[in-house]
Amino acid sequence: MLQIWDENWQLDEQVCTCDIHFIEWLDAEQIKGKTIYHFGTGGHHHVGLVNMAKGVPNTILGITASPKEFDCFVKLAIEHAELSRSYQVLFGDIYLLNSRLMPRIDIATAFHLCEFRSEKQDAYGGHTDKQVAELLLDMLPTGAPLLFYSGSFAYWQAEPIAKALAEQGRIRHAGTFKSLEIYRKLS
Ligand SMILES: C[S@@+](CC[C@H](N)C(=O)[O-])C[C@H]1O[C@@H](n2cnc3c(N)ncnc32)[C@H](O)[C@@H]1O
After folding, report:
1. Are 36 and 60 in contact (CB under 8 A)?
2. What is the pLDDT of residues 144-187, one digit of tens each?
3. Which of 116, 136, 148 to mutate to test the pocket of ligand 1 (most atoms within 8 A of CB)?
């Protein structure tokens, strides 16, 4: 059985700031015309909805492992006919990430890395957290941002992965924006 996330996460700046800070970072950096892979949409689909409300500066592909959050996306896509032109959501487990099913991407978020990997994914050959980060890097062009969320409860596990990749020369730390750590691909 697929390891699902059986919740419907609502936007709450007191508890989880990553999506709010991500939108602020995109604005601050004036990022436009990019394709973004977003790990963990929430049932609120804030990143896709704000992108639409701002006149579609970017194109976003999110992933959720929550059937309820995916249902919310379907409802939103029906309600807002224009939404799915710029925002699409995959239902699935990021530990099954397959580059052959992916579009070309320019930016990736790894906000929830290490939060949801368990032995359940071993049963179907899921990637490790480090492999997910490496696969995302493989898909990004040189210089592209890969973002981590320092407010994650699992950041104590995700940060060493980022640092190991930096030591291997695959990424460099390029800055901090509020609760986000921005790395850029070197190789
Ligand atoms: C705590 S919620 C945070 C949602 C949103 N990023 C926010 O800040 O409000 C975690 C998100 O990660 C997604 N998620 C959890 N495990 C996942 C997995 N294995 N693959 C893909 N998405 C997953 C959930 O579906 C949910 O959207």
Report:
1. yes
2. 999 999 999 999 999 999 999 999 999 999 999 999 999 999 98
3. 116
Q: What is the pLDDT of residues 14-65, one digit of tens each?
A: 999 999 999 999 999 999 999 999 999 999 999 999 999 999 999 999 999 9
Q: Are 47 and 107 in contact (CB under 8 A)?
A: no
Task: Identify the DSSP state of 30.
Answer: T
pTM, two decimals, is 0.98
What homologous superfamily does CATH list for 18-185? Vaccinia Virus protein VP39 (3.40.50.150)
Structure tokens at 165: 């990749």
Q: Are 102 and 36 in contact (CB under 8 A)?
A: no
Q: How many residues does the chain have?
A: 187
Q: Quick one: which atom of ligand 1 is closest to the CA of 9?
A: 2
